[in-house]
Amino acid sequence: MPPEPALVEQGSAVAILNCVDETCRNTKVAARMYGIDVNFSQFEEKLFQQMREAGFSTDVLTLGVTSAGAASGGAAASVLSAIGAGITGSRAAFEKEVLGDKTLPAIHSSMRANRAHVRARILTGLSKPLKDYPPGVALTDLEDYYASGTVLSALIGITERAATAAHEAEQQLVNITGFASTDAANFLYGYAVADGLSDAEKRDRLNRIAAQYKAQGVDTRGIAAISLIRNPALASQTAAVARGFGWKG
What we know:
By secondary structure, the chain is an all-alpha fold. Helix content is 71%, strand content 0%.
């Protein structure tokens, strides 16, 4: 059921901004959070009802993505309207049952994680004096709290976490294989084995590169120049050596 009109009014943006003490701020922020929580609960109920009855099918707008903005109003309503339009434009992708079957739990989990993160930030702020957590900042966090429970926010969160995980995996692979592909390393490698060079010229360049690593204090005994270039532990020395051979980075 929707939040009581009195609570919605009590938690309005104007009411929060007009607060001059912590009690007023905390009471009105709590009222607004309650309205947002009710909307999210309604969203969840419709989401899983739709999934049970017909899968994650054609129209996510029926889940209340656009209409749920009534209690929060202002920027939140605009955010949801934009989200609704975006989802409609991407309807074909969401019509695929496999997306619903495999991705819906991840989207829902991401929504809850996003909301929990922002909720913790708000509750931490409410424990502070008004000067350290003024009403304007609280209102901004509330709008973020509302938006964090949307499909778009969940998808963005999933994408960002996937990108971070990919970067960490790539770095782990570099550490395991000892293969560095920084701009400096790529420059030195290209310089050492450039097309058109004779074998003698390549050996000469590799020897001069190894000598520059040695000048940087690196123990080069028994180590091929290519291995020095591609060693991620020597990134700073590789950058210095590369500059010596004309790298502009």
